[in-house]
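User: I'm writing a short report section on ligand binding and want a predicted complex to refer to. Could you take this sequence and S-adenosylmethionine and write out the structure as tokens? A short remark afterwards would be nice.
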Amino acid sequence: MNPELPAIDDTPIWNAMLSVFNSQAITVALELEVFEGLTEPASVEAISNKLGYSQRGMKALLPMLKVQGLLDKHKGEYQLNNLSRAYMLKDSPYYWGPFFSRRAETLPNYKMILENIRDGETVEARGSADGWESGQMDPELAKTVTDFMHCHSITSAVGLANTCDFAGVTKLLDIGGGSGCYATALANHYPELRCTIMELSAVCEVAKGYIEKAGVSDRADTKAVDMFREDWPEGYNAHFFSNIFHDWSTETCEELAQKSYDALEPGGRICLQEILFEEDGDGPYPAAAFSFFMTQGTKGQQYTLAELESMLVKAGFKNVSCQRSYGYYSLVTAYKV
Ligand SMILES: C[S@@+](CC[C@H](N)C(=O)[O-])C[C@H]1O[C@@H](n2cnc3c(N)ncnc32)[C@H](O)[C@@H]1O
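Assistant: Sure. The structure tokens for the complex follow:
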């Protein structure tokens, strides 16, 4: 049985966690002179070209400024508004720049954050992204990263099991499942469901402990598979990805969608659990802040439903649908018909 859901969802905790990115974004924008660069309205592409910064970095930064009320957007172009003109421009008598640049000295990893936004590279202080890409992760890092992911996913996992319909799913493969919290929450909710957590080998070892704690050892197992380099197991009628597509570029997500389509049973479904951007790609706040965070340890970003749908349809999936699952998360589902 899953533990009973708390009476209140965990979005206030998410807000607190994400709020650390608010002033990081402003500090980076001031140092990179993004506000000065926007004295004329500009698209992501135009401002990237004008200032010589990466499009990925600007695509992460500008929405984060917009959700904080520091930029407006009109017909695809970002522009200054009363707030940024008053406080973010160097020639304003009310300029806040020196405050943020002095605080920058105390921001952990500030240089890395600045360079990632400017250059679109992903350098991370503790290196889990390197392990993900190479498919190699040492046991100590696997334990730390898996525990880190588990606590931010477990409430949403039990929430999803309560709100979304997985009736008819008999064999579920949780790809990059981490601790396996989604798979085990679903197995606890649906007694007929068997699941496998497909992960890097060192993470599988950690997931085994979580499976035991969830009390579903008779119906859940792990399979050590590098999702990029190795064949995926067959015989599953659901593939579940939580917070996986947001780790990777569009091209890599398309590759994952194709691998899923090829390995799924006919009639099977793919499920993507993600915090979605609205169609304009600028908000809501949690999507913008999580997307900004993704520049600090992954190759990815938060996506809109249309962007995910396009990746799925390209792989051959049909009947794409989306529902709010729990907290800030949505579940996108599509079928191999
Ligand atoms: C952002 S975490 C998501 C974990 C879990 N699905 C959740 O939502 O809490 C990404 C997961 O992908 C796994 N992963 C990364 N690269 C992988 C690879 N090449 N093959 C298999 N799993 C991989 C990581 O070990 C990590 O657990």
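A remark for your report: The CA atoms of residues 112 and 336 lie 41 Å apart. The domain at 129-335 is CATH 3.40.50.150 (Rossmann fold).
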